[in-house]
Amino acid sequence: MNLTLKVWRQPNTDSQGNFETYQLADVSPDMSFLEMMDVLNEQLMSQGIDPIAFDHDCREGICGMCSMFINGEAHGPDRLVTTCQLHMRKFKDGDTITIEPFRANAFPVIKDLAVDRSAFDRVQQAGGFVSVNTSGNTQDANAIPIEKKDADRAFDAATCIGCGACVATCKNASAMLFVSAKVSQYALLPQGKVEATDRVLNMVKQMDEEGFGNCTNTGACEVECPKGISLENIARMNREYLAASLKG
Ligand code: SF4
Ligand code: FES
Question: 3-111, superfamily in CATH?
Fold first, then answer.
């Protein structure tokens, strides 16, 4: 395949970016999108041009690092896959592909396609954990019976990889889908109930302080989420938040 690639180039956070257009020939339909970007970078370096910065790590849909907005969609045109799992067979010979970073005030661009998503880390640190007594008297987690439906829902919520596609897709740059997945994975389990009140209050407070927008129930986040995180989690977080607020 021969492709025209319009890629966002921005040297650093404070500079103004712009699109640069590159031609790439002989792209195999079996390449992943990131392999195609690797080939483009090799071509750029052979021409003495600064390679395009982009985030990646596992390249198997687990780490959530590969944040690219491709032809107007987070993680590109395929469903339930990350950019690293997207293959070039989803595109056609002669296509023009536009590649941008995830855009949100809370995710400043570091360089080109790489953005700073440490806001997610700070939300997680505000309450996305269970405190465990490590004195040697810790109860075995398997000793607490959990209904299968609750275990399944908690597991589904825990599959959120923190990629940020929900924020990049939302017209308000809301982080509600991400935060609600992190709240839900604990809210559904007995181990998470001990700190449930503080958890939801603190995580929502941190979410607001990071500058994410409000949820207006559009549902675009659920459509673009590579892990199929359900809007049900947002409803659950709202219930948790109301209950915690009433407790004071
Ligand atoms: S909810 Fe989905 S889109 Fe949002 S961070 Fe988690 S995995 Fe990514
Ligand atoms: S590189 Fe890890 S999810 Fe894409």
Answer: Beta-grasp domain (3.10.20.30)
Q: Which long-range contacts (CB under 8 A, 24 or more apart) does 75-78 make?
A: 75/163, 75/165, 75/224, 75/226, 76/33
Q: Which of 121, 208, 215 is nearest to 177 (CA)?
A: 215
45 pLDDT above the threshold of 90: yes
Say yes or no: CB of residue 86 within 6 Å of ligand 2: no
- Tell me what pLDDT residue 140 has: 81
* Nearest-atom index, ligand 1, CA of 175: 4
pLDDT by residue (tens digit) across 177-228?
999 999 999 999 999 999 999 999 999 999 999 999 999 999 999 999 999 9
| Nearest Cα residue to atom 6 of ligand 1 | 160
Ligand 2 centroid from CA 69, angstroms? 14
| Domain boundaries defined on the chain | 3-111, 118-247
Ligand 1 and 163: CB distance under 6 A: yes
Cβ of residue 63 lying under 6 Å from some atom of ligand 2: yes
CATH fold of 118-247: Fumarate Reductase Iron-sulfur Protein; Chain B, domain 2 (1.10.1060)
61 Cβ inside 6 Å of ligand 1: no
